[in-house]
Amino acid sequence: MSDFPPFMQLGVRHIWDIGAMDHILFLLALAAIYRLSDWREIIGVVTAFTIGHSITLAAATFGVLPLSAPMVEFLIPLTIVATCIENIVVRERAKAPWRGHYRPIFATVFGLVHGAGFGGYLKSLFLDRIVVPLFGFNVGIEVGQLGVLALALASITLIDFAIRKSRVAYARTTPLRLRTVTVSAVTMAVAARWAVERLPW
Known about the structure:
Helices cover about 75% and strands about 0% of the residues. With about 200 residues, it is an all-alpha fold.
């Protein structure tokens, strides 16, 4: 198991690296609709995302999945844009299809795209052994994601506090809705710019 600790550390560092900002932004987009009290649901959605990217990460690493790096890099910010649009369009989760419980499904699907992005990076690091380093890297990714998620929730909680203390009138909306739309709109604008910059044609 000597390969496990270094690859786990690599997974954590990869998530926290400035080069993984699109991954961090996607986690922020996922978390934008939740309150701190929804932590169980958030962890469920992020775990579904982990399952998705673990599948394509393994497939890419074993050479089963042919990678088109420019297309993958273009699709990743589109997953962020799509998530932000869903955040903004769906006003009442209780009235959404399946009461909004479809989010783990699309988190898994979008995770497939992000995993393809990880695969190209990780494949170059493996020599003879694959299984243990791959498992360690995935565990590190999950640990790193939970750390990012904790910071995102802390930031969102501070935003909620600031909104409640402000004199903004919410006659037509709620503080949660105001925060969701604001965070999603800013995140979507950044991701949309990345998508334009990464056009593969």
